[in-house]
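User: Please fill in residues for this 250-position structure.
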């Protein structure tokens, strides 16, 4: 019996790590990327209990903003004769700042990781996608709801969705579908990486108690939606989104 294979970017923490664990449990073979070799090794150890003879797990060093590493990843798929049934473009960054104080370095880094990198990744992976194949971009509710301090982040997510809508038309004959998961505020490492201190993160999490869900979201809250979007159940969806926000957009 053949096993479906998914490539998952940015899976050494947060939503990516939770998704990798969930998909292994569902019987998928998982190839995941990370930016740090030590983190990749640690993730392999965490996920190895969920690997069986029927499925495989592989971690690859690949920074979304590093074009050479993207090409090396594609070359490794070619060498191993791997065909992908699904791709989850999850890796991303967030640097909160009012637009009037925005710095070029943060602007360029955000667009590189959240837009240019996934676009070039998808271009490089195209020869290695099966027919049919599902691509899911982990976007954000910022595409549909404005937040202060998130102008560039919002633009980067909206830009990729606009690009992918066109690819749904260009790649229709290949039966490649691209859809989007739009998480609400989710507790991951992204808050600490954005410069928030533990006390600030705690207060921030408490502020989400006013949403219908009554709490900040967790990575595990996203995995069922991701699993559906890469499953055959989504085969007639193109440019669609699933919003998992705990009701914060209501």
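Assistant: Residues filled in for all 250 positions:
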């Amino acid at each position: 019996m053949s096993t479906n294979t998914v490539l998952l970017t940015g899976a050494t923490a947060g939503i990516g790590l939770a998704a990798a664990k969930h998909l292994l449990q569902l019987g998928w073979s998982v190839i995941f990327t990370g930016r740090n070799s030590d983190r990749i090794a640690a993730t392999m150890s965490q996920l190895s209990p969920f690997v069986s003879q029927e499925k495989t797990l592989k971690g690859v060093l690949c920074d979304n903003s590093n074009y050479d590493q993207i090409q090396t990843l594609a070359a490794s798929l070619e060498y191993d004769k791997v065909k992908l049934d699904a791709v989850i473009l999850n890796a991303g960054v967030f640097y909160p700042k009012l637009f009037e104080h925005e710095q070029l370095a943060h602007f360029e880094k955000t667009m590189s990781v959240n837009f240019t990198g996934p676009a070039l990744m998808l271009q490089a992976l195209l020869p290695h996608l099966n027919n049919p194949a599902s691509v899911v971009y982990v976007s954000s509710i910022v595409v549909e709801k404005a937040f202060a301090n998130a102008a560039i982040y919002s633009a980067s997510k909206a830009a990729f969705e606009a690009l992918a809508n066109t690819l749904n038309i260009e790649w229709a004959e290949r039966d490649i579908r691209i859809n989007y998961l739009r998480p609400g505020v989710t507790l991951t490492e992204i808050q600490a990486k954005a410069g928030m201190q533990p006390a600030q993160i705690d207060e921030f999490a408490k502020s989400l108690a006013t949403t219908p869900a009554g709490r900040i979201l967790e990575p595990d809250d996203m995995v069922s939606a991701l699993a559906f979007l890469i499953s055959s159940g989504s085969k007639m969806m193109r440019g669609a989104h699933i919003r998992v926000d705990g009701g914060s957009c209501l």
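For context: The helical segments are 14-25, 37-47, 67-80, 104-125, 151-170, 190-193, 198-207, 223-229.
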